Amino acid sequence: MMLNLVSQNWAEFFIGGKDGIFKIASSTSGIDKNKLDLSKDENLSRIPYITRTELQNGISFFIANQENTKYKIDENKVITIGLDTQTIFFQPHKFYTGQNIQVLRHTKLNKFTAHFIISLLKVQMAKFNWGGNGAT
């Protein structure tokens, strides 16, 4: 069943902050690539490592679980924003990140609402792209 967008009540909303609909924070992991534990069996490398790349949903490569280190895995069903590069993606799986990744969280976020919000964010962020500093 297709949702009729014309008959919906539309209103302005804040993305983050006190009145925002999302909790926005740095990623839980934020692992510098040089500090990754890559010594584990390659067959265990199934967790996405998200960076500021604009390719492959922000995934640079897959890594093994890093939880024996001080880094915690980030939960799935969130939107990631790569600072400096303004890359914005929905993450359907648990993941680790590189540095300078912000995460937007909402308990009711799913891939459909996320892609709708992402398209709005990209339009807004394009207005603020000065001097190569992106979203920072």
TrEMBL record:
An example Gene Ontology biological process: DNA restriction-modification system
GO molecular function: DNA binding
Keywords, alphabetical: DNA-binding, Restriction system
Type I restriction modification DNA specificity domain segment(s): 20-129
InterPro entries, per the entry: Restrct_endonuc_typeI_TRD, Restrct_endonuc_typeI_TRD_sf
Highest taxon in the source lineage: Bacteria
Pfam families assigned: Methylase_S
Family: Belongs to the type-I restriction system S methylase family.
Official protein name in the record: Type I restriction modification DNA specificity domain-containing protein
Organism, scientific name: Acinetobacter bereziniae (Acinetobacter genomosp. 10)
